[in-house]
Design goal:
Strand order of the largest sheet of chain A: 1-5-4-3-2-6-7
Distance between the termini of chain A: 15 Å
Helix content of chain B: 25-40%
CATH superfamily of chain A: Phosphohistidine domain
Number of domains of chain A: 1
Strand content of chain A: 25-35%
Shape of chain B: globular
Number of strands of chain B: 14
Oligomer: heterodimer
Order of helices and strands of chain A: EEEHEHEEE
CATH class of chain A: Alpha Beta
Structural class of chain B: alpha/beta
Helix content of chain A: 10-25%
Radius of gyration of chain A: 14 Å
Number of helices of chain B: 14
Largest sheet of chain B: 5 strands, parallel
CATH topology of chain A: Glucose Oxidase, domain 1
Radius of gyration of chain B: 22 Å
Distance between the termini of chain B: 59 Å
Largest sheet of chain A: 7 strands, mixed, barrel
Number of domains of chain B: 3
Strand content of chain B: 5-15%
CATH topology of the largest domain in chain B: Aconitase, domain 3
Chain lengths: 159, 416
């Protein structure tokens, strides 16, 4: 494998809906994805046939999308995925989402696993970027997105 | 924008009222912050949609609240579960799934929730009143409470409905506040002297659900419904094809005595005409099955059949006297079923294939004996979800056509 070459790192500030730290490869969608009916909590695979991400896997990725979508049952599916370890490592949203927030909070409450859920500007982040979510001194989220130039691969292929 | 908490809220958050109340308040506060609410308000009741087993996390949550000694703080009803506890053996499920699914229903009762197990809590003695603040889950119940009764709830769901019940509080936001209940989009029925048929109400519901997005729909020109069950069917359909939590029907629902009242004096953002062709098109999408197709079963009562609906069904059954052994499943609340049994209304009805189902619903769990044929229903909601959930082919029709079809063994519809 070719060693990825950093061609640029962009840092942005965000607001935590659930605080935590994570590091992973970005999986970016312009279309919101509903966890309920959209993700198989047993595997992390996207199963929504109307979504462009169909067949890709969110497990361990930094899921980036404008907003959440759909049924409130998404809270349960997210909490269950976090429990099973099939959830994204973190989620970046442009707009706050109460349903995903509840799923993340409940999972932290029950299992002590903090999957960061961050509201921030998501412009310029593309699938395959390496994204690190950290906490600033003021409790705000610090999101670093680094473009990895080569090789270009489908983000779904990463573990 | 900061969330302001009362001393009582803080006391709960700080654990002075027990571990469970503290956990519920913590989640409620985080949720309220996420939606930008500025405070919490008191609720008079809650309806929890948490009894269908979807995985361990859901059960772990309720168990944790039980362990923490939690009790709901307001009268709280329960939505359907995965089991018909009244008719043991009706639901077929592997033991490994059955144990946690049953436990989930029982654990909610240990928190002090009422064992209603119905998606139509508005048919029970816990029905809220106009203007009351409530926290309800279950999409059809939410739209009914807001629209038909004029009670006030947002679309609460997983975990949050229970957190509201455990604290007796809800975020002061969304449809709890008068200014957010104003209509935004007008649907003008363009059908001369429309008959108040069940299909018309379902069709209108499907259309407004699809076209409203997050705007509150106002319907003008809807004929006076025969009863509130037609509005129940409309709301359930609208909450199936879309995310409608409140609709106004001018001259029918309590916050829409006039167009002006429904729109709070503003003009609609958009007006959409609904013609008979639109209704026919929306309904046709629910059932691609031609007349004459062999019938495997009939399923009625999604949302749960009211006592009034039973009073319409039973004479139809006696008249058509279906005798081919095609099961006619009717989902209903256990309180309604008890009342029917006390009245002796169901005596001899099993000969016509009638199978009452309580506490659950035929599209969320394994009840149907045969999944290989066409199932007829008068429910827009059932017709929408059942193919995906349990893998059946559906034919949508008026109730009397469902019963006639059961009698002859294949799909027949009046219009054809």
């Amino acid at each position: 494998m070719t060693q990825p070459v950093a061609t640029g790192a962009v840092e942005r500030l965000g607001t935590f809906q659930l605080a935590g730290e994570a590091d992973g490869l970005a999986l970016v969608f312009s279309q919101p994805l509903s966890f309920w009916g959209g993700i198989d909590a047993e595997t992390g695979e996207i199963i929504d046939h109307s979504h462009p991400g169909l067949g890709q896997n969110v497990a361990g990725m930094i899921l980036v999308m404008p907003s959440g979508r759909g049924s409130s049952s998404s809270s349960s599916v997210l909490a269950e995925a976090i429990r099973r370890g099939t959830a994204p490592a973190g989620i970046l949203l442009e707009r706050p989402d109460p349903i995903l927030a509840v799923g993340a909070i409940v999972a932290e409450f029950l299992y002590g696993i903090s999957m960061p859920l961050v509201v921030c500007d998501i412009a310029g982040i593309v699938s395959g970027d390496r994204v690190a979510i950290g906490t600033g001194a003021d409790g705000r989220a610090i999101v670093r997105a680094k473009t990895e130039s080569l090789p270009l691969r489908s983000p779904g292929c990463f573990p | 924008m900061t969330l302001e908490l009362t001393a009582q809220d803080r006391s709960m958050l700080d654990g002075e009222q027990g571990l469970s109340a503290a956990a519920a308040m913590k989640i409620l506060v985080a949720f309220s912050n996420a939606i930008g609410a500025q405070g919490l308000l008191d609720i008079t009741g809650a309806h929890i949609d948490g009894c269908l087993y979807h995985g361990k996390a859901g059960l772990d949550f309720v168990e944790r609240l039980v362990e923490g000694g939690g009790r709901v703080q307001v009268p709280t009803t329960l939505n359907v579960g995965s089991f018909d506890l009244i008719h043991p053996g009706m639901v077929k499920m592997p033991a490994a799934e059955e144990v946690p699914a049953r436990r989930l229903m029982k654990a909610h009762m240990e928190l002090g929730c009422q064992a209603t197990f119905t998606c139509a809590p508005y048919q029970t003695r816990f029905r809220p009143e106009f203007g009351q603040q409530i926290a309800w889950g279950e999409s059809n119940a939410i739209v009914f409470a807001n629209s038909v009764i004029g009670a006030r709830t947002n679309r609460y769901g997983d975990f949050i409905d229970l957190c509201c019940a455990m604290t007796g509080r809800a975020p002061a936001w969304g449809l709890h506040l008068s200014e957010n209940r104003r209509g935004r989009i007008l649907f003008a029925l363009d059908i001369a002297e429309a008959e108040p048929s069940d299909s018309l109400f379902v069709g209108v519901g499907l259309i407004i659900g699809q076209a409203s997005g997050d705007r509150i729909p106002v319907i003008a020109g809807l004929p006076q419904p025969r009863d509130e069950d037609q509005l129940k069917a409309l709301g359930a359909a609208a909450a199936t094809t879309g995310a409608v939590a409140l609709f106004h029907a001018v001259g029918i629902t309590p916050e829409a005595n006039s167009l002006d009242e429904a729109f709070h004096g503003h003009a609609p953002d958009e007006t959409i005409r609904i013609t008979q062709a639109d209704i026919d098109h929306a309904l046709a999408r629910l059932s691609g099955v031609p007349d004459g197709t062999p019938l495997a079963a009939v399923s009625l009562g999604t949302p749960h059949f009211s006592h009034e609906e039973w009073m319409r069904l039973l004479p139809l059954l006696r008249e058509a006297a279906p005798g081919r052994g095609i099961p006619i499943y009717v989902n209903t609340g256990r309180a309604t079923l008890t009342r029917l049994q006390e009245e002796g209304a169901l005596a001899g009805m099993e000969a016509f294939g009638l199978i009452p189902v309580a506490d659950t619903c035929t599209y969320v769990t394994s009840i149907l004996e045969r999944l290989d044929g066409v199932v007829m229903t008068n429910s827009g909601k059932w017709a929408h979800y059942a193919p995906g959930n349990i893998g059946v082919t559906v034919a949508f029709a008026e109730m009397k056509d469902c019963i006639r079809s059961a009698a002859v063994g294949h799909v027949v519809r009046s219009a054809s």
